[in-house]
Amino acid sequence: MNTSLAKTKNASSSIGGLGFTFIIALISFGLSKLPGLDHIGQLACAIIIAVVYRQIWGYPEKFRTGIQFSAKRLLRIAIILFGLKLNIDIVLHQGIGLLARGVGTIVFSILLTMLLAKLFKANSSLSLLLGIGTGVCGAAAIAAVSPILKAKEEDTAIGAGIIAFVGTIFAITYTILRPFLPLTDLQYGVWSGVGLHEIAHVALAGAPAGPDALAIALLAKLGRVFLLVPLSFILMYWMKRKNQVESDSEAKIEFPWFLIGFIMMSLFGSYVLGHLIPVPTSVMNSISFFTSFILTMAMIGLGLNVRLSDLRTKALRPLLAMAITSVLLSVVTYFTI
Prior knowledge:
Blueprint: H1 2-31, H2 42-57, H3 64-82, H4 88-94, H5 96-120, H6 124-135, H7 138-149, H8 153-177, H9 185-195, H10 199-206, H11 211-226, H12 228-247, H13 257-271, H14 281-303, H15 308-314, H16 316-335
Subcellular location: Cell membrane
Organism: Mesobacillus subterraneus
Membrane topology: Multi-pass membrane protein
């Protein structure tokens, strides 16, 4: 009888938690369509709502099972499906030079952010996430590497929120500066693709310069997304060595199987869909929407772990380190085009 009751409560918590994150995700998508908020995006809206909810009403304990499912399982599913956005064939055949720039962007962002974090005595875990998000592909990169780095869910949520907000400011700044810069449309596209944080930010900044600029910007950005895979394996090796040094024993690092799924979906989308299997654009758009939606649900689950008291004490210095890195990244990439 007790076992049956426990199963019922667990099922109720699971369904209720999924419904809870689903409803807030719907609200977030609706808000992201409003003027002004459309530049921020649904991920940032979702995290803001989740954080505000936590401060006012506390963590919804009765829905914990479903919320944790969203924060962990749906997050990994979203990363796997995110692989469909990466056309490996285009990156390898047309973007080798941009791929090299992407390597430079990632190394520069991570090293400088961590150097500044050490200088400012900032939280190292959150700073590393922000450095990776700045160098690779924003919130998606932070979500992908968090399990490898064993980062706290709170740090993952804070990092994703910061990167979405700061990246939006930079994207808007790029569009404002574009008419005054001595760059061709293609040069501006490369600058946007190499210097901005997320794919959405690159699209926002690149679109006003025309379709060719947008195409080259997205190609440059896809190169950085592609580099998420080798970076993840480097981080796995680094964590294993770090744990061995600290514990003097064989480190137990959970293999990020969802990255294999990411690679497989990338290969599937690059060489099967549209080639061996015709797929209407509407279907691909629906898959992209579904991916964004479940990623939003995951971010809500993570955002509910954030306490503003911790945000004040933990996030300001990493935010400063990341902001300075982003400014210098934009300046350096501008003068190297």
